[in-house]
Amino acid sequence: MALPFFRPTPIEPPADIEAASLRSDRFRLQRESDWRRLDGIVTALERNRPRRISDADLLALPVLYRQAASALSVARETSLDAAMLAYLEALVRRAWFQLYGPRSGLVAWLRGFLDGGWSAAVRAIAPEIAVALAIMAAGTLVGWLLVASDPAWFDALVPGGLADARRPGASRDVLLATLGGEEGSGLLVFATALFSNNTAVAVLAFALGFAFGAPTVLLLVYNMAGLGAMLWLFVDAGLGWEFAAWLSIHGTTELSAIALAGAAGLHVGRAMAFPGARTVLNAGAQAGQRAAQVVAGVVLMLLVAGLLEGFGRQLVTAPLPRATIGGSMLAGWLALFVLVRGKDR
Amino acid sequence: MKDWRARRAAQRAHWRDQRRELVTPEGIDLSFRLASRGARAGALLLDLLMVFAGLVVIAIVMGALGYGAAQVGMEVGEPALNGLMAIAIIAIFLGRFGYFLWFELGPRGATPGKRALGLRVAARPAPDGSGRRLTAEAVIARNLMRDVEVFLPAVFLLSGMFTQTGVSGAAACVWLALFALLPFTNRDRLRAGDIVAGTWVVEHARAKLAPALSVSAGERPAWRFGEAELSVYGERELTVLEGVLRQGDATALRQVADTIGRKIGWQVGEGDECAFLDAFYAALRAHLERGLRFGRRKADKFG
Fold first, then answer.
1. Cβ of residue B122 closer than 8 Å to a chain A Cβ
2. How far, CA to CA in Å, does B1 sit from each of B6, B15, B34?
3. Which of A74, A250, A296, B159 is spaced 20 to 30 Å from B281 by Cα?
4. How big is the CA angle at A99 (ends A95 and A105), to the nearest 5 degrees?
5. Domain end among A100, A127, A153
6. Alpha helix (H) ranges present in chain A?
7. A–B: how many Cβ contacts below 8 A?
């Protein structure tokens, strides 16, 4: 069924070419219907309705584009019809955007991304990942040492709302109880909220890299100092293994993701601070696109981490299974980054 | 001293110039006009308004569903209500990250706000001037930066308004101002996201093909113009004349006909303006285009 307003409007033949008194107008009238045909195809592409383009039109598209482009360069040198030049320039520009626009749809991009694109981007920022991990380790150590020297630091490093029962001086049983799981249907909300918050932090770590990476370092140190403080608290109570297992089930994924996001920020910051032979803008753009790919993957990892934390940690309560899940997740991510190399990479 | 002034004036003109060129793989120069900062701010406001309106609608629907659930006797923590809550969190998340990404990844390369103002995102050309593809990575990068540029300070600012903490509000203002002023500090009007993604925002209006003007030349009385009469004007004047003819406003036609008549020493009778200007346009264009074919360009009446 063809509705009248979806039917393509037929291209009207141009006015009598011979009646045109100017050579440039004859030039234009001879080509006008081709331009209108190109216009129709480009409009369909812009509206994201490629199925409305007939096969013949699709085959003719490159030819029509080249013809319009060469007509434009001829017209610029021979014609003074400003309206026609403006139209032709806009048409060629629109066609250029469609022909040389994003190569693929979202699904095709995602496939290439998972099949090598992401892991290649991660491997490319390996030095920054090492730096980010070192900073995170240092942050954890700082948190540990501060709280070990004076437990009053705990409140400064761990936001109060999260800490609740977990405070310096709490008994071993109270602490152990916080590592348990809970049954219930609130887990979905918990998981989505965790995912949403963690993603915001990861994006922040990437975006702050713009200021030459310094805020990213601070963010990593601050977040990890809190973890160091918690670690001290539980180790002090003799619950080191339980806490590590509790943390690892989602932590291996989440901390790797945070490390990657921080490394992405540092990558951008480093490229802009030390662009080398490139201009700052060029270096920033190259690094930014690579880092964006890493961060897109980080979002995926945080989704997994949110599910693991929201559901997995609450339903699996024994330390050993938790640690096993956490360890195998880490191994899985590492394998993905090291082993997956797309066909054309 | 004078030299320095001239150089500064040239720099300023360069700064104000909106045209940017790139070379397509076919070797065609394509020119673009950079979007003005005002248009971009307007587009952003429109988009934020749309996201906000969408979230309000979702909040109202959620509220109605929650109220209905409470009427039925559901308690907090029941699976259905939790599902609603999760959907709400995801909706906010998508409004924050998904909206801009989804639209800028589409074939138009523009959010509805940008489209409304005739703008789109494009990749900056390579250093040698050749055009580049807008990649998905670039769009992701520029929109991840948007979170720090717009959403975070906005949230700080809003929360500062409600909790009355002056320090965080002031910090958010400074933050927002730094990012908002960034497009004023560079020639290509790049915001932080554009710098990191290698993109810029250009005007992207569609043009309609106006009919050819010289086609109706046959039926009008023969006006003949000599070399001397046609050489008083250049391309700039021709373009202005074309605009006047295409608009067809009677007073403007009369004025222009009088001006040209005075200049070339002709008396244009009442009611003859249109025919006279049509003929003069065709003759002037033929004259100037002939010059073009011989490699002579006459930019304006002074040239």
1. yes
2. 9, 21, 32
3. A74
4. 125
5. A100
6. 23-46, 55-78, 82-99, 106-112, 118-124, 126-149, 153-157, 160-163, 172-178, 187-207, 214-236, 240-273, 280-307, 313-315, 319-339
7. 228
- Helix, strand, coil share of chain B (percent; to 5): 65, 5, 30
Tell me the one-letter amino acid at B159: S
* Per-residue tokens: A232: 């001290």
Quote the number of domains for chain A: 2
In a domain, A47, yes or no: yes
Asked whether residue A215 falls in the same domain as residue A132, the answer is yes
The CA distance from B238 to the nearest CA of chain A, in Å, is 8
Identify whether A214 is part of a domain.
yes
Report d(CA A295, CA B207) in Å as an integer. 39
Q: Does the distance separating the beta carbons of A204 and B152 come in below 8 Å?
A: yes
Per-residue confidence (pLDDT) for residue A4, from 0 to 100? 47
**Cα–Cα distance between A27 and B234 in angstroms, integer?**
22
Low-confidence stretches of chain A (pLDDT beneath 70): 1-20, 102-106, 160-165, 181-186, 343-345
The answer to whether residues A52 and A112 belong to one domain is: no
Closest Cα to residue A83, out of A22, A31, A28, A18?
A28
**pLDDT tens readout for residues A273-331:** 898 888 888 898 999 999 999 999 999 999 899 888 888 888 888 888 889 999 999 99
Q: Mark which of A100, A123, A151 sits at the end of a domain.
A: A100
C-alpha distances (whole Å) from A266 to each of A198, A296, B205 are 18, 16, 38
A330 and A267 together in one domain: yes
Residue A71 lies in a domain: yes
On whether any CB of chain A is under 8 Å from the CB of B293, the answer is yes
The minimum CA-CA distance between B271 and chain A, rounded to whole Å, is: 23
Q: Which structural domain range is residue A269 located in? A: 108-339
* Same domain? A95 vs A154: no
CB–CB of A80 and B32 under 8 A?
Answer: no
Output the six-digit token pair for B66: 């929650």
Q: Residue B30: enclosing H or E segment and its boundaries?
A: strand B29-33
One domain, residues A140 and A92: no
Enumerate the residues of chain B whose CB falls inside 8 A of the CB of residue A292.
137-138, 140-141, 144, 196-197
A4 domain-assigned: no
The residues near A229 (Cβ < 8 Å, ≥ 6 apart) are A143, A144, A146, A147, A153, A154, A157, A158
pLDDT digits (tens, 9 = 90+) for A35-58: 999 999 999 988 888 788 888 888
